[in-house]
């Protein structure tokens, strides 16, 4: 009998060109999902529907069972066991953005490197999952579990697709999510994102406008206020500039952008601006209270502003940023925040602390996202099986890690992020290029093939122990 490893290697060699063709067809679809689901047959718009249709059609051609779940997501299945082992990948991508050296929606193969929007995040993984299923189907591998490839269409914006899937379908016994790095991610911090909406402030407020930041999950690099005043004191902070014109002063604060998961790598421009406004004593009463709340949230980054600073050995410190602020024409302030919390604090305690802060300034709380931390005990047999498979294929020791970000893994009881990238791949990328969400997004072809081999081995091993 030919060893399974040799069969896998021959399959990957024989299917290499067709795999690239399928990936190219998928990359060519600009499947950017909207901020929130839309009415009509395509909740994530037609390009996402086209990407899903393509994958379901290719699965059908291979001989797999397929189901379209209201164009929210789809699933391809092999086998008919009562319990399932799943791979969850997403077909939506972030917008292309600027700075590309080629067409972002045309797959480029340069040497051993693939370029295109989604090759890494996450269409390459979706195609890897498709070819894993193709291997099982062509070789009629006997398994006691049903093997599923779950294909989502809303990972990059609201992640409304996986909760919808789980409202319709039974959760798999284990779900592998190829949307990160090898070896094994066993946990993700809790996520809370929302806005504090103040009452209207005085009509005669000297602060005519105030705006900072563009996304609540990014440390803001700029913030600007226009005030009805001149002759303001020279800012002690060199990152604040003043420009007087027609009895008004435009105050601009500059900071350093960083992701909300690593706030200490940034420098919050909102904090600098609000601190200066308060030092100038331009407002009193209610508006001063609102600005003090904004300062508390933007001049700290570990939850001190809400009184929830905490940490644990697994996830480390809670992080909290004020990512946006805006004063509208009615004089209301909207303060956007993002919190990533460890298991050291319970979700209801965190929510109560946020509500208490809002109550202090008679403000409304609008929570757009509130997900509890996700953690799988690394001593679980399934995790140990993943470790063994990784070590057998790579010859390298396999550890585990946790993240402050979010993947589909958090929605599944036994969800684990597992590849497809290796840390060495990311270390070799040029600054500002190559990574997920960056221009010239890339994936080494050898990495994709290696990940496919690891996944085929892993599915067979998990089927034997679960």
TrEMBL record:
It comes from uncultured Anaerotruncus sp. One of its GO terms (biological process) is L-arginine biosynthetic process. This is Putative dipeptidase SA1572. Its cofactor is Zn(2+). It comes from the Bacteria. It is an enzyme of class 3 (hydrolase). The keyword Metal-binding applies. Belongs to the peptidase M20A family. One of its GO terms (molecular function) is dipeptidase activity. InterPro entries: ArgE/DapE_CS, Bact_exopeptidase_dim_dom, M20A_pepV-rel, Peptidase_M20, Peptidase_M20A.
């Amino acid at each position: 009998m030919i060893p399974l490893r040799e069969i896998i290697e021959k399959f990957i060699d024989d299917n290499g060109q067709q795999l690239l063709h399928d990936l190219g067809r998928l990359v060519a679809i600009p499947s950017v999902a909207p901020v929130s689901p839309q009415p009509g047959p395509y909740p994530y718009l037609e390009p996402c529907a086209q990407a899903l249709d393509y994958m379901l059609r290719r699965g059908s051609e291979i001989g797999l069972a397929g189901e379209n779940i209201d164009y929210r997501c789809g699933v391809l299945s092999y086998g008919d066991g009562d319990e399932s082992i799943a791979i969850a990948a997403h077909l939506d991508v972030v917008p292309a953005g600027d700075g590309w050296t080629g067409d972002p929606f045309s797959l480029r193969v340069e040497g051993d490197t693939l370029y295109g929007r989604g090759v890494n995040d996450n269409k390459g993984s979706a195609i890897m999952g498709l070819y894993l299923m193709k291997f099982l189907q062509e070789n009629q591998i006997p398994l006691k579990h049903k093997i599923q490839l779950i294909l989502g269409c809303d990972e990059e914006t609201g992640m409304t697709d996986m909760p919808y899937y789980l409202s319709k379908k039974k959760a798999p016994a284990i779900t592998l999510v190829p949307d990160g790095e090898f070896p094994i991610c066993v946990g993700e911090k809790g996520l809370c994102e929302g806005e504090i909406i103040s009452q209207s402030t005085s009509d005669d407020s000297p602060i005519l406008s105030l705006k900072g930041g563009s996304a609540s999950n990014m440390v803001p690099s700029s913030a600007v206020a226009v005030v009805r005043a001149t002759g303001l004191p020279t800012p002690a902070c060199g990152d604040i500039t003043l420009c007087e014109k027609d009895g008004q002063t435009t105050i601009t604060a500059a900071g350093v952008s960083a992701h909300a998961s690593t706030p200490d790598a940034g420098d919050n421009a909102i904090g600098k601006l609000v601190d200066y406004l308060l030092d100038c004593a331009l407002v009193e009463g209610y508006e001063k209270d609102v600005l003090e709340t904004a300062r508390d949230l933007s001049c700290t980054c570990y939850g001190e502003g809400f009184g929830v600073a905490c940490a644990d050995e697994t996830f480390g410190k809670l992080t909290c940023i004020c990512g946006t602020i805006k004063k509208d024409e009615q004089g209301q302030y909207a303060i956007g925040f993002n919190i990533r919390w460890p298991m050291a604090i319970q979700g209801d305690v965190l929510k109560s602390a946020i509500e208490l802060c809002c109550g202090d300034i008679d403000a409304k709380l609008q929570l757009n996202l509130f997900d509890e931390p996700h953690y799988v005990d690394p001593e679980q047999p399934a995790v140990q099986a993943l470790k063994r498979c990784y070590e057998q294929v790579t010859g390298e020791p396999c550890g585990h890690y946790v993240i402050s970000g979010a993947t589909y893994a958090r929605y599944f009881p036994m969800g684990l992020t597992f590849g497809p990238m290796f840390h060495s791949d990311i270390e070799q990328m040029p600054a500002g290029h190559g990574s997920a969400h960056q221009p010239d997004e890339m994936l080494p072809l050898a990495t994709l093939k290696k990940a496919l081999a690891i996944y085929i081995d892993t599915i067979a091993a998990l089927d034997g122990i679960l």
